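User: I'm new to structure prediction. If I give you an amino acid sequence, what do you actually give back? Let's try with this one:
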Amino acid sequence: MAGRNDPEEDRRRSPRFSCGGRAEIQCLPSSGIVIPGTIRDLSLHGCHVESSLPIACGARAEIVVRVNSASFRAVGEVRAIRGRSGAGVEFAYLSAGGKELLTGLITDLARLQALMNKLKAERREVDGESFRRELADAKAQAAIWSERFPFLCAISPAEDAGDRAQDESKGGKAAPASKDGDGDYPAASAKPLIVAVDLFG
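Assistant: Good question. You get back a string of structure tokens that encode the predicted 3D arrangement of the chain. For your 201 residues, that looks like this:
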């Protein structure tokens, strides 16, 4: 018989692993009613089961646990009630075959959990490194574009004034700027700038 330990103490000395599975519960002494349930987690000393009908805390029951293709039968005691339909069942008795099968299940679940934790940690590292690389690439690309096409950053008004002076020195006259509605001359004429850019050069 397993000792009557506090459920939280069982949780510390026997880690629980999330898993999916089915359960069939018969309260003892049996009335012939089988309560179906869903396994939420499993440990060497018990399980958390969600049942379609409430089970009283302290009730003894025979429970059949099915996880993947494995199944075993145990006599347990409801040690805690969680919510309206959740029950923490401590295994009080298992056969030798049941203990061996349960140990194998826990070993597989522990390996799966360790693998999932490793993959999550690696993904966080990769995501962080990818973000840093993309940020550095974006900064480098911005620097290249600013060097190749400085007019994209700013257009100097002095260039427009220089063009006018050059036209006048050749004997031509600069085209007078048109007045706006208030009778003032705009500082510079607004001309559309069309530039052919070879993005693959």
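You can read the tokens as a compact description of the fold. Here is one thing that stands out. The chain has three helices and six strands.
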